[in-house]
């Protein structure tokens, strides 16, 4: 409503084109979609898995309700929350309609899209909630799925659009899964992923695929709501050290790091808390780290090929923009899942008291926790550098620019890690800590971009620049000279903000560690 009041006409004349109302309506619509994606999935993601942890899902299955009624009751409850969020936007959109330039068909199309989005992501959240072992894992995988479908799904289209190949068709199909690509034509922006003719059917494709996937997801989830979900038996496996000499020699040939070999003792020079985190984390063991690094290295080689092939048509800056968006999305996706629950999970499982009985100080415990997150993030970032190396080879003048991009990414990694750890330490439950860390990090990274979309409608250039200084993604895009960001000077202002916010997170973490380490 404040945005509407700012753009409300001050005299008795208004533009017949309705430009003001369209500008505000565009900003309100994008902001409302972001709020839906941030807040709505938390409820379905925790709904069924909490029932499993508390033992009430088994009781529900023994009632006459049946899986269909259980599922749709959960789904309807989620849609009630979505309806509440959408109803709060009705006064603002109604005022935009009163300003002129919008039709009821425009409003109906946007709200129909929001309704389909809420159903689609609620169905995904319920499926993940049923399959996840813990609430914390359900939240992590749900936000990962959201980021994959909204942002990363558009990356293949950027590389292969305009080509007559199967990859171009696949990229177009994946892009139509993003609600942002579907919303932009409805609010008059056009195709955000296109460089040629606007694909007028992108919105219809999204609606059709979303309804289809929602139905498939719902049927699959309903089919799994039975007593068999409580059967989690699995093979104990074998230890390589207990096998014969020939078997051990063969496994040394086929495995650089044998996943079934007993772990060696912890050396004195290593922080035992860091080793504990690596060995207890699902993907923390050395063989999994090598697999993750190999995956990102292969992905980087693929992007390197795309960089070499696309630089002739698009320019290095355009390819660099795509690389930055992809890598920043990965940082936002991975970092909170690794760091947000480091302290809260220990408190939730009451392992914090056990850690305090060891000779380790709380500061060494905290440093070990931080090291367990920093090392994988640095390794993953290092595995994605070949694309930038090829960019420098193609255009040697970009060396300083690429170095500043890498510096921005390193700063973003440590800022995201410390902020997630500082926020997560304030909560006793890992699920709440993870959800809050994701919401805070996405808020810092995404909300300032709304002001960028509203430049001159109604925010001026100086106001937008000051707000974008808080956004590490925007700062990195200005360094790479991304289209639409070349007129902003966000460095070193953003670096100063990242350093100050990181120190504030360290202070919050230190204060909380001192409080919870005192005897009660």
Walk me through what this model shows:
The longest helix has 29 residues, at 286-314. By secondary structure, the chain is mainly alpha-helical. Helix 2 (19-39) runs antiparallel to helix 6 (90-99), helix 11 (179-186) packs antiparallel against helix 12 (202-224) and helix 16 (316-339) packs parallel to helix 21. The chain has 25 helices and no strands.
Strand and helix layout:
Layout: H1 2-7, H2 19-39, H3 42-54, H4 56-61, H5 66-88, H6 90-99, H7 104-131, H8 135-150, H9 155-160, H10 166-175, H11 179-186, H12 202-224, H13 245-254, H14 272-280, H15 286-314, H16 316-339, H17 344-348, H18 352-356, H19 362-383, H20 386-394, H21 399-424, H22 430-453, H23 461-468, H24 472-479, H25 493-517
């Amino acid at each position: 409503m404040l945005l509407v009041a700012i753009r409300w006409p001050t005299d008795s004349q208004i533009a017949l084109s309705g430009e003001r109302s369209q500008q505000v309506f565009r900003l309100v619509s994008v902001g409302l979609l972001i709020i839906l994606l941030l807040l709505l999935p938390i409820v379905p993601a925790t709904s069924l898995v909490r029932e499993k942890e508390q033992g009430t899902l088994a009781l529900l299955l023994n009632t006459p309700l049946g899986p269909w009624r259980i599922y749709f009751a959960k789904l309807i409850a989620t849609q009630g929350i979505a309806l509440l969020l959408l109803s709060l936007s009705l006064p603002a959109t109604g005022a935009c309609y009163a300003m002129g330039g919008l039709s009821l068909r425009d409003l109906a199309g946007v709200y129909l899209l929001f309704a389909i989005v809420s159903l689609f992501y609620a169905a995904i959240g319920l499926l993940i909630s049923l399959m996840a072992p813990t609430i914390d894992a359900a939240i992590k995988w749900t936000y990962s799925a959201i980021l994959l479908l909204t942002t990363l799904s558009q990356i293949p289209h950027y590389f292969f659009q305009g080509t007559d190949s199967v990859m171009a068709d696949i990229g177009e199909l994946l892009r139509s899964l993003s609600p942002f690509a579907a919303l932009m034509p409805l609010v008059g922006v056009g195709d955000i992923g296109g460089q040629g003719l606007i694909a007028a059917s992108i919105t219809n494709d999204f609606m059709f695929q979303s309804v289809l996937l929602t139905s498939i997801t719902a049927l699959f989830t309903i089919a799994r709501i039975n007593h068999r979900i409580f059967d989690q038996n699995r093979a104990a496996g074998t230890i390589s050290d207990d096998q014969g000499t020939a078997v051990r020699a063969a496994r040394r040939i086929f495995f650089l790091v044998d996943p079934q070999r007993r772990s060696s003792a912890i050396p004195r020079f290593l922080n035992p808390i860091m080793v504990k985190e690596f060995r207890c984390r699902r993907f923390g063991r050395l063989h999994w780290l090598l697999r993750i690094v190999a995956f990102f290295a292969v992905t980087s080689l693929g992007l390197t090929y795309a960089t070499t092939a696309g630089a002739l048509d698009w320019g290095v800056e355009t390819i660099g923009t795509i690389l930055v968006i992809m890598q920043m999305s990965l940082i936002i996706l991975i970092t909170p899942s690794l760091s947000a629950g480091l302290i809260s999970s220990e408190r939730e499982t009451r392992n914090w008291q056990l850690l305090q009985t060891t000779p380790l100080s709380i500061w060494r415990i905290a440093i070990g926790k931080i090291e367990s997150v920093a090392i994988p993030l640095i390794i993953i970032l290092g595995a994605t550098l070949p694309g930038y190396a090829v960019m420098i080879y193609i255009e040697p003048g970009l060396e300083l620019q690429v170095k500043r991009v890498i510096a921005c990414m390193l700063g973003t990694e440590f800022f995201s890690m410390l902020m997630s750890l500082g926020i997560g330490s304030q909560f006793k439950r890992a699920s709440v800590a993870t959800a809050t860390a994701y919401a805070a990090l996405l808020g810092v990274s995404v909300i300032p971009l709304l002001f960028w979309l509203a430049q001159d409608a109604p925010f001026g250039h100086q106001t937008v620049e000051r707000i974008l200084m808080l956004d590490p993604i925007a700062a990195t895009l200005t360094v790479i000279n991304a289209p639409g960001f070349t007129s902003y000077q966000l460095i070193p202002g953003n670096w100063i903000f990242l350093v100050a916010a990181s120190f504030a997170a360290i202070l919050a973490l230190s204060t909380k560690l001192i409080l919870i380490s005192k005897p009660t």
